[in-house]
Prior knowledge:
The protein is α+β, with helices and mostly antiparallel strands and 125 residues long. Helix content is 38%, strand content 11%. It has a 3-stranded mixed β-sheet. The protein is extended. The model is unreliable at 102-108 (pLDDT under 50).
Amino acid sequence: xxxxxxxxxxxxxxxxxxxxxxxxxxxxxxxxxxxxxxxxxxxxxxxxxxxxxxxxxxxxxxxxxxxxxxxxxxxxxxxxxxxxxxxxxxxxxxxxxxxxxxxxxxxxxxxxxxxxxxxxxxxxx
Length: 125
């Protein structure tokens, strides 16, 4: 299979490099999942998203086009744009994660599923 260099499709790379700079700033400032979630909430608010807990507390009703987010213990974040069709007709879901900084001894090789499960239990504690 022949692949082509992706850079050839860009005539102007300004937008690409602007995105890169924003991403570098994000990963430089957000070293933990809680810092990532905090920054993502700030960006979501700037983009017009509102906290779902506040909407529920105020007994507001969601309408098509509303943008909301749900923060779970500052460790996970769900963002929604309310659609026009009833949920029974389906929904689109995009998932991502903030990641987990895992450090382990590079000399140790994990060679079995059992070792992976033991290792995972240790880092999740």
